[in-house]
User: What shape does this take?
Amino acid sequence: MTVDLEELCPGIRKAVRFLQMEGFETIDSGDGSLARAGMECAFDEPMVGIKVEPHSLIVDSDRLRSILLANQIDANIEVG
Assistant: This one.
């Protein structure tokens, strides 16, 4: 699925672009600003959701962790 990055919250575009360039399918994102604007389903901190098939969850999680470490990106990874 192709996402128009200009339609995303400005504070999260770079992260979404990075993950897509690394081959991850992003399915949700936000920079935390909409939670303050009254959007109840929005997180109050930056987040990007990626689609991972159940059979490849461990492999894809390890790949994501390796990519983040290689690029010196500190991220709080949560499965939910």
Notes: The chain has a mean pLDDT of 82.
